[in-house]
Amino acid sequence: MTSPLWAAPFRPDPVDATVSLPGSKSQTNRALILSALADGPSRLTRPLVSRDTTLMADALRALGTGIDGDEDAWTVTPGAWGGRQEPVRIDVGLAGTVMRFVPPVAALVDGDVEIDGDEYARQRPMATTISSLRALGVTIDDAGRGTMPFTVRGAGHVLGGPITIDASASSQFLSALLLVGARYDDGIDVRHDGPPVPSATHVQMTLTELRRRGVTVTESADRWVVAPGPVAAYDTTIEPDLSNAGAFVAGALVTGGRVRVRHWPRDTDQAGDRWREIARAFGADVGIDGDDLVVSAPDTLSGVSLDLRDEGELTPVVAAVAATASGVSTLTGIAHLRGHETDRLAAITAEITRMGGEVDEHPDGLTIHPRPLHGAELQTYADHRMAHAAAVLGLAVKDVRVHDVATTAKTYPGFEQDWQRFAS
Ligand SMILES: O=C(O)C1=C[C@@H](OP(=O)(O)O)[C@@H](O)[C@H](O)C1
Ligand SMILES: C=C(OP(=O)(O)O)C(=O)O
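Above are the sequence and the phosphoenolpyruvate SMILES. Below is the predicted complex in structure-token form.
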């Protein structure tokens, strides 16, 4: 079900706001997976409670994990992996982390686990998940589709060992195997063969989270080795989601304003930390004040030239800012965004064009030209980040109405209310 048309708040003068963000999706879902595989209970403080993380928690519960608590903290109690289990069906929604991270874990139960998701999820790339599990000896029934729905017929354990995959369509194929690898009999030794793996920051986050839990993982060019062994229980506090913070930084940029983002972590693997460099590239003044990030926009935004391969998820909001800049912007390294929640390169091009903007769509990027923009009804394609981009454009340009802003609940329930407050 989609939400009614939303009149995005317009702000003709500079915003000056302070915001606090909900927790990181990528950290929460990694912490859930690793806690479910651990040798004892773990506590997650300030987890993100959103559609993607609820789907992950429900998936792990279906596989025997105990997850209890409230919005402030969850306790994750691992089940006994390897036991016989009745057939279950897992709903992955449109969550890449759930659809790619859960099947290699489902292979550890002795029983059938059906994996399916939203209608559009069936179009997201999944062939590498299916072929890599098959190469590791796991039986998968996908009726020859190479996409969802499919059934993992787990045997209670996975041999693991050496495997070669092509993770160029999504880093999540690689992270998925690394996250579970310690619990495979021989660990996992993954080689990547293909065009570059995107989202290096997310792969780094996977390695950091494994090491925090005592897992031995080594990396060299295009090869990652996880030793078999226990995953230590680990209590963790989830950082604020910096990719979602990007919408607010962008809101300050497009209005010539200022934003203070509370509790910006000093040392983080989050892709959104790149916003510090991105805001500077647009001409902003960016500083750390105590625990906070403070971004002050220039009077006129410069065009930017950015390779976003390692932080592709930032692209829709970066593109929205670029559409309001005074110069041409080029965003490159992002062919893999065509397999995200929607084909984001096509979606960004269509929506900015709808407002009178001009975008050249390339196989692996976008060129965005400075053009006067006008109000329009913007589509969001069940994509939370297209909704954030639409909100940013609506702040800068009068009369923007947005279809299905509620899709932001994928990673940020309450976005609409927080944005309204930010804009007023
Ligand atoms: O591992 C993760 O948490 C993610 C990895 C990235 O996926 P891709 O490599 O498919 O872009 C990113 O875009 C996604 O939002 C989250
Ligand atoms: C690509 C994204 O999500 P997912 O985890 O569904 O791949 C995203 O959040 O931008």
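The chain is about 30% helix and 20% strand.
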